[in-house]
Specification:
alpha+beta, transmembrane, 439 residues, 3 domains, globular, membrane, 17 helices, 8-stranded antiparallel β-sheet, transmembrane helix
Length: 439
Amino acid sequence: MNEIFNSREQALYLWMFIILISVIIIPSTRKHLPGIIRIAFSSQFLCLYAIMLLYTLGIVFIFYKCSLWNASQLKNTIVWFLFSALASFFAINKIKSENEYIKEAIKETFSYTLVAEYLIGFYTFNFWVEFLSFPILILIIGMLVFTDKDPRYLSVKKLLSKLLSIIGLFLVGYTAYKLITEFDDFAVIGTLSDFLIPPALSIAFLPFIILLSKYLKYEANFTKVKFAIKDPYLSNYARLQALAHFGFSTQDLERWSSSLFIEKVDNKQDIIRSMKKLKQLKKIEKNPPVVNPVNGWSPYAAIDFLKYEGMETGYYKYVGENEWMACSTYLKLDDDLLANNIAYCAEGNEQFVQKLKIQLNVNNPNLSATAHLKFLSTAKELFSKALGIALPEDVEMNITEGTDYYSIYRDKEVKIAKNIWEGHKDHGYNLNLIIQLKC
């Protein structure tokens, strides 16, 4: 066993076995197992597992023919498939931009962190030290995550961070010592292969993940097309045209399929027109026209006003009745079950944004201080980007206190409105900051 798995791998696999047995024994977790197993081993997933396995075998065969892989790498390949390849597969729905995903994956593969992790993993302690250290490290990391967003535990967070840093420095120091004193054991061809094979497999696996991601996005968007266009013949025509027009551009496909629920599509000409309209919009987005401040703001500038505050909107799009809008998702401000959250919207017509709005929802007034600080920082950023001025003191005071306000700045109306929710058990409320053209 020691010849196949080192002490750290043995400890990790034993803990995984213990956790699995615990899940099976404990009634509250055991009741969910049948459903999870049913989904994980459904016919669709089994088919995808088989394709993944065949693709991996193809990679291994090519590596073998190029003298980059041999039988001694079988364990590393199996471990990579079970932990890395399957993890990438189950996280595939989180891929928003394939290009960004590829850049990030390559960056991680060739990072110094990967080298450090490999070196630290090469030199291990005896089995019992490794076995007992796992739950301690998990406990420290878990407590660090728990204390991360709550200012009440700032001192605990600092202590845990220092403790984790000390452990990290000790591991680096121990690795450096072993590397110097036992370099002959490390500097062999087998060791180099052990290091290179997993990242090489990960890079070679990227095309499969990207193609699968695009396929799943096409499936999801074609389902939307089917719901938006009830006529089966017209729906099939729309999907064929989408394949021809958008190809691998799933972002354009998603924008177009969403527009079908707003725009009226009754015939083939409407479908072609909707696709051409999207292309025209993309051209405008690349070279947006200059907007006179009297008319409002450029939609393509306004949607990015709070980008660096974590409130990035989607595309500026038609929402009906000659109204256009772009809104961010709600950004959670704490870890409460009903977290306080904040969002940003830009509203107007096709040419101009005429209204900017930040909405803070305070579901838990006990954590309102942190929420108001975030609201204040976004307000400062919005005033700077939208009006070109610093946040006035009277606006800052009303935001801090959460009170109504109205004034004019740079020929734009500025409003703060607080709405207390009737019947809310904790007296929750929302606070809105609106900057808009004068009525």
